[in-house]
Amino acid sequence: MTRLSPARLALYVISALVLVYLILPVLIIAPISFSSARFLTFPPPSFSTRWYQQYFSNPAWMQATRVTLTVAFLTVVIATPFGVAAAYAISQSKLRIMRVIHMALLLPLVVPIIITAVGIFFVYAKVGLVATMPGLVLANVMLGLPYVVISVLAGLQSFDPAQEMVARSLGMNRLRSFFAVTLPQIKSSVIAGGIFAFISAMDETIVALFISGGQYQPLTKRMFTALRDEIDPTIAAISTLMTAASFILVLAASARHKKSG
Amino acid sequence: MLALVSPALLVILALIVLPVGWLAWQSIYHDGFTLENYRRVFTEDIYWRSFALTFEISLAVTVIALLLGYPVAYLANALPKGWSILILSLVVLPFWTSVLVRAYAWLALLQRTGVINQFLRYLDVISEPLALVHNTFGTVVATVHILLPFMVLPLYASMQKIPGDLMQAGASLGASPSLTFFRVFLPLSLPGVLAGCTMVFVLCLGFYITPELLGGGRTVMVSMLVSRNVELYNQFGAASAVAVVLLASVLAIFVAVSRFISLDRVLGQK
């Protein structure tokens, strides 16, 4: 190790400050959510779970939570098989059109989400899908697909397709050989992709602002409206729960990745 | 094989290609063809100012993110593996928190009665609370926070590809550490700089939640113009034209950048 030069010291200090800037907002929410104060004071005057009670006893927040969980669950159930099938086809096929299709499947990551949201709103308005559950789920399937495709394609890259050929030469049909040989080996990428699709659906806000309404409003839409009006610490409680849920899911996804090596 | 991709492709066609196509159509057709919407977007002051402001903010956010992200990526690249994993985990940690949650956190930190103002008053640095939020400053602080991971990760990826012995070679030839950094390391990390800057700039152009919640209604970015034209004024044609111009800007940037580096790199796939 060399001696700590001034440039090196500056590098450490700047990086540490940037990391604090990145982490502080994530960490500040939990203490606020457990504070008894109506207005934000720091440090919190005393410990209290009143904002959590307020959240769990409010029918509107509970209905929104049910909508969010249902949408996220259905999104995973639909987007995962669609994404796995697409990724498998893209990796196996030598058709030139597949490159174009691959790019098309990544469009949700490229098009600014506000444009997607307004466009979907116009289309839904024509076909009567605004403020409906199927409409909300479909939009989230579209937004979650790229995560499944990217994750599964990465998994398939380290998979040797010759193994599937062997299974087929032994008399299995394509479908059976996929489920018996390929799927078990890419299982962790499939699960990781599904988890990312779940988180994406859980956090999605902008499309929901335009197309959801009535009793089918997800948590994020209600939170956004609440934040525009006043700062209610109930939101801190919900935010803490959402963040905890995301982190647990991400840890689960990365633990699965490690297991598969 | 085409049968296998068709469900996914159908979803994409129905829910993003068709809607965006619809927008484009609606921007030029309303009881007959018209360019009126585009005339308004390109000549009326309110649209002009919003586009200019959006590009200014995106540029500022990109430059700040680069200045903050480069040292972090450099350090993560230079330190032993355990430390670099820790640093990168801290960088992506906020990435998995909802944008909405982070907007709330910044409101809690920056508002007049917020944590930072209370702390500064406690220290007697200020007597009156500073206006840190509901303005462009608050928008930029929170936007940089959200986009910083998109800068650090491509930077780190490109730095990983720089062979360590190049720096040693520079040093053994008598160059000072700063000279080897500026003449060898920095130029070799430029693909990462370009990839990170493109991603941050383009994502920032379309930002909606942060400016809406932290801009205090004064920082009207293009995305807010789109949403207001839809929600408040029912001006679907105008909203569509603004959206088309925004999308065209984004695509133009991607095409321009793809002449220098592969787009897979920008989208973080490699």
Structure description:
The complex is a heterodimer of chains A (261) and B (270). Chain A is mainly α. Helix content of chain A is 79%, strand content 0%. Chain A has helices at 6-33, 50-57, 59-92, 97-105, 107-110, 113-127, 133-157, 162-169, 174-203, 206-211, 219-229, 233-259. Chain B has 270 residues and is an all-alpha fold.
Radius of gyration of chain B using CA atoms only: 22 Å
Multimeric status of the protein: heterodimer
Mean pLDDT of chain B: 88
Taking Cα atoms only, what radius of gyration of chain A do you get, to the nearest Å?
23 Å
Major β-sheet annotation of chain B: none
Class derived from helix and strand content of chain A: mainly alpha
Name the overall outline of chain A.
Answer: globular
* Euclidean distance between termini CA atoms of chain B: 25 Å
Hey, which two chains have the biggest interface? A-B, 82 and 77 residues
**Order of secondary-structure elements of chain A:** HHHHHHHHHHHH
Kindly state the number of beta strands of chain B: 0
Question: Could you give a short description of this structure?
Answer:
With 261 residues, chain A is mainly alpha-helical. Chain A has 12 helices and no strands.
SSE layout:
The complex is a heterodimer of chains A (261) and B (270).
Chain A (H helix, E strand, L loop, with lengths): L5 H28 L16 H8 L1 H34 L4 H9 L1 H4 L2 H15 L5 H25 L4 H8 L4 H30 L2 H6 L7 H11 L3 H27 L2
Chain B lengths: L1 H27 L7 H8 L1 H34 L2 H12 L6 H12 L4 H8 L13 H25 L3 H9 L4 H12 L1 H16 L3 H6 L7 H10 L4 H23 L4 H4 L4
